[in-house]
């Protein structure tokens, strides 16, 4: 790799890096080098737990130019009636095919097992992790940081609590292999991974009363029925219109979430519990019904230490035993670094723009990079919109999406790209506008979206201004 020159050096071959490159080379005649320290393309999916599935349908995930799956509606199983969701293995195979396809264009070189170290004397310093050799890559146009939102996953994170040597803790990745060795389980974590672990246990015949769930916080989830593409886009747009209606009327955060829950837009496992966490994840009816069967829920804050006979938490302790398998689902998932301009001199820092649409956002940045000269204009079309952690992030996130979408509509080329991208969840909307459900949703949305933007921005400013 000595003396390598490239137009773009993309750091990270996950969904974001690959979706960006795919869109960029479709629109521009450029040379791109993609590096990733993992041994294969696909980002966090390379280390995902064995029973993971995409949380959202496959139909609008991945890169623009290659379909993932067949856009099929499942006829049976837990996802019956909704668009198919790829397994982890299918996602990994897909990103492998994407990498091959990109390299096949002759414009892209993908180097897995290569880590970006920083600035070198003659360019960006890249280490070949197999040989240990360092090389400088001269970048003619831009370095693309596609690891800004890098996911922290159970297989590779270090738990933030201590574990005694005679206590049993496994990362969720090892649950299937370890499950047969015990009949008693404690699942640690509040988010979607913990839900997946509980559902896997229940689906594999473990009785609910053999499962304890240590849930430091309770989380809001979306109903997956509101994230359906194609023929079911009406349900998706209904969900968005419910956001607009609640946003226009919510007097404060609790009232807002009360409205969203009452309309079916938001779900939670226990409606009687104080619920503050919101990471933009979704559940289906099967998952919700399953986890509601678990009654032994520990709400004493985060785990500090697991000993042979007790778990010490922030606000108390509970008994455990050497037979109990503790399952670590506490990795953060998407990181939440502070927002930065996406387009900077000599640099692109990929981040969320439209909420909860990682592949779409990275591809949009690739399109905008190819078609606009000025960074200020690129940033106007792609303002960063940080991923949520708590319910207080929802007003900012949703109102920013709506403001940004209006800007896209006033730029014909961007609007045309958005309308045709397979990564756009709403792509099928124009074909369905005559349906009564869609007409009702459109009317609700158009009535409320303007007031909702103003109201949600007010709620957000109340949060950010000192009291
Ligand atoms: C468990 C889980 C499930 C999810 N499911 C969905 C879903 O169903 N639908 C959806 O839309 N979103 C989902 N997401 C959200 C997520 O944004 C996307 O799935 C997406 O895969 C994230 O891709 P990324 O490329 O931004 O980050 P990552 O996948 O984390 O990729 C970043 C890459 O950068 C590499 N890297 C970091 N530093 C360096 C360095 N110095 N040198 C070289 N390489 C480096 C890392 O090795 C990594 O491979 C999920 C997230 C998680 C954690």
Descriptive labels:
alpha/beta, 21% strand, single chain, globular, 22 strands, 467 residues, binds flavin-adenine dinucleotide, 5-stranded parallel beta sheet, 33% helix, 8-stranded mixed beta sheet
Structure description:
The structure is a single chain. With 467 residues, the chain is an alpha/beta fold. Helices cover 33% and strands 21% of the residues. The protein has 12 helices and 22 strands. The chain has helices at 15-27, 88-104, 175-178, 192-203, 233-249, 253-262, 285-291, 358-371, 375-381, 394-409, 412-420, 436-464, and strands at residues 5-11, 32-36, 108-112, 114-120, 123-128, 134-145, 151-152, 162-163, 169-171, 185-188, 211-214, 218-223, 266-267, 275-283, 296-298, 303-306, 310-313, 316-319, 325-328, 333-334, 343-344, 347-349. Strands 1, 2, 3, 4, 5, 6, 21 and 22 form an 8-stranded mixed β-sheet that branches. Strands 9-19-10-11-15 form a 5-stranded parallel β-sheet, covered by helices on one side. Strand 21 and strand 22 (347-349) form a beta hairpin. Helix 5 packs across helix 12. The longest helix has 29 residues, at 436-464. The chain is globular, with a radius of gyration of 23 Å. The mean pLDDT is 95. Bound molecules: flavin-adenine dinucleotide. Flavin-adenine dinucleotide binds at residues 11-12, 14-17, 35-38, 43-44, 54-56, 61, 115-116, 146-147, 149-151, 153, 333-334, 358.
* Rg result: 23 Å
How much of the sequence lies in strands comes to 15-25%
Ligands bound, unique: flavin-adenine dinucleotide
What is the tally of helical segments? 12
- Characterize the biggest β-sheet: 8 strands, mixed
Shape: globular
- Name the poorly predicted regions: none
Instruction: Give the overall pLDDT as a whole number.
Output: 95
Helix coverage percent of residues?
A: 25-40%
**Using DSSP, what is the number of strands?**
22
How far is it from the N-terminal to the C-terminal residue, by CA?
A: 56 Å
Which structural class do the helices and strands define? alpha/beta
């Amino acid at each position: 790799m000595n003396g390598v020159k490239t137009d773009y050096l993309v750091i990270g071959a996950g969904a974001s890096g690959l979706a960006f490159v795919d869109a960029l080379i479709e629109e521009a005649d450029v040379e791109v080098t993609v590096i990733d320290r993992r041994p294969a393309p696909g980002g966090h999916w390379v280390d995902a737990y064995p029973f993971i599935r995409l949380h959202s349908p496959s139909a609008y995930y991945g890169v623009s130019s290659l379909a993932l799956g067949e856009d099929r509606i499942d006829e049976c199983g837990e996802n019956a009636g909704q668009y198919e969701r790829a397994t982890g293995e299918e996602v990994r195979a897909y990103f492998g095919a994407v990498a091959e396809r990109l390299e096949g264009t002759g414009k892209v070189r993908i180097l897995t097992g290569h880590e970006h170290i920083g600035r070198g004397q003659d360019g960006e310093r890249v280490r070949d992790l197999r040989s240990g050799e360092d090389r400088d890559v001269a970048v003619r146009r831009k370095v693309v940081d596609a690891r800004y939102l890098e996911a922290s996953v159970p297989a590779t994170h270090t738990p933030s609590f201590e574990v005694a040597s005679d206590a049993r803790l496994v990362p969720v990745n090892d649950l299937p292999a370890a499950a047969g060795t015990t009949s008693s389980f404690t699942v640690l974590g509040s988010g979607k991974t913990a839900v997946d672990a509980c559902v896997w246990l229940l689906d594999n015949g473990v009785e609910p009363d053999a499962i304890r769930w240590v849930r430091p916080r309770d989380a809001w989830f979306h109903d997956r029925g509101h994230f359906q593409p194609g023929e079911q886009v009406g349900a998706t747009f209904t969900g968005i219109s419910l956001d607009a209606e609640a946003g226009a009327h919510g007097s404060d955060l609790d009232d807002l979430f009360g409205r969203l829950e009452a309309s079916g837009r938001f779900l939670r496992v226990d409606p009687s519990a104080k619920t503050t966490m919101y990471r933009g994840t979704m559940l289906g009816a099967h998952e919700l019904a399953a986890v509601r069967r678990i009654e032994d829920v520990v709400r004493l804050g985060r785990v500090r230490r697991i000993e042979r006979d007790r778990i010490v938490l922030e606000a108390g302790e509970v008994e455990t035993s050497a037979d109990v398998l503790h399952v670590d689902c506490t990795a953060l998932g998407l990181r939440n670094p502070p927002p930065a301009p996406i387009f900077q001199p000599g640099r692109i820092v990929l981040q969320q723009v439209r909420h909860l649409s990682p592949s779409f956002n990275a591809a949009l940045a690739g399109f905008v990079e190819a078609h606009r000269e000025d960074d200020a204009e690129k940033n106007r079309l792609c303002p960063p919109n940080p991923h949520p952690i708590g319910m207080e992030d929802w007003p900012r996130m949703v109102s920013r999406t709506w403001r940004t979408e209006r800007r896209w509509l006033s730029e014909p080329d961007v609007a045309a790209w958005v309308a045709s991208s397979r990564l756009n969840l709403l792509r099928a909307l124009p074909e369905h506008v005559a349906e009564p459900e869609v007409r009702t949703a459109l009317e609700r949305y158009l009535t409320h979206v303007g007031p909702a933007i103003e109201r949600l921005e007010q709620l957000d400013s109340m949060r950010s201004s000192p009291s």
